[in-house]
Design goal:
about 75% helix
């Protein structure tokens, strides 16, 4: 179930372009941190340099790119309306300042600076969720992409809430940050926010760009429900320290939803109107 694009509702270029121009700096920062790290960075996920690299890439690059894409695709694809274009510009400034402060603070493991930058990051993500949620709520038609984005925004709110709580816990020693708690935070963000956003947007863009006219998605809603349920189960089980066999079982369950999505994407691409695959088609297959 896709929505009809509305190009006339697209926000101005000067609103969207800065997000895509700023995002690669997060990737470059992560690459620089990785290049200047020793082999210990690949030993454990909770080492300062590893945590800094992860946040530079995920928060600085991927999340910033998704923000710009949602601000662009929200009005055009699902027909919603942003709460405020000015709010989006303010949010980008806050986000850049927050990432620029948070990543070095994590690298130095300065818990006070991490907590302060974490508050700014939370403010940035909160502004984004408010703005994007207004677009989802105001959507003129129900679509699969809208449902995925709605779920992704909920998981994003959970992700940055956990992140700020962990940053404050490190500063004030409320409770230990175990590997299980870090894993829950990471999976909620990577699968819940990033994964669901990409899956949902692909259900709109693949049929549109591949000119799919005689086939429809068949497993999209099942993939969404299974991914949400299995992710929540995994996060609640792994945070307190689930055993290895339970983790493997829940990880397998969490792979079912994206597998259904992949089957759907292959089905759509096999019924494409274009005879030859373009870059977008090859990229979808590789993903």
């Amino acid at each position: 179930m896709t929505a009809r694009p509305r190009p006339a509702d697209s926000p101005p270029l000067w609103l969207i372009a800065p997000f895509f121009l700023a995002a690669p700096f997060g990737l470059m920062a992560g690459g620089l941190l990785l290049a200047t790290s020793n082999s210990d960075a690949l030993v454990a996920i909770n080492l300062p340099q590893t945590v800094a690299i992860t946040h530079a890439v995920v928060v600085g690059w991927i999340a910033t790119t998704i923000m710009g894409a949602v601000y662009q695709l929200g009005p055009v694809i699902i027909g919603g309306k942003l709460l405020s274009e000015r709010l989006a510009r303010i949010q980008l400034v806050v986000h850049i300042v927050a990432v620029a402060g948070f990543v070095p603070a994590v690298r130095a493991w300065n818990t006070e600076a991490m907590a302060m930058a974490g508050i700014l990051l939370t403010l940035s993500f909160t502004l984004f969720v408010v703005n994007a949620s207004a677009c989802v709520i105001r959507a003129k038609a129900r679509s699969l992409t809208r449902a995925y984005l709605a779920a992704a925004l909920v998981f994003l709110a959970a992700t940055f809430s956990l992140g700020l709580t962990y940053a404050m816990a490190l500063r004030h020693l409320w409770f230990p940050i175990t590997l299980g708690r870090l894993s829950a935070h990471a999976h909620v963000g990577l699968v819940g926010f990033i994964g669901l956003t990409l899956m949902g947007v692909s259900y709109q863009l693949v049929p549109m760009f591949a000119v799919v006219q005689h086939a429809r998605q068949r497993l999209g809603r099942s993939a969404l429900i299974l991914t949400v349920v299995s992710l929540l189960t995994f996060a609640f089980a792994v945070a307190p320290g689930a055993g290895p066999w339970l983790r493997v079982l829940l990880a397998g369950a969490m792979a079912v939803g994206p597998s259904l999505w992949a089957i759907d994407e292959v089905h759509l691409l096999r019924h494409r109107g274009k005879r030859r695959l373009d870059v977008q088609g090859y990229g979808t297959y590789l993903s």
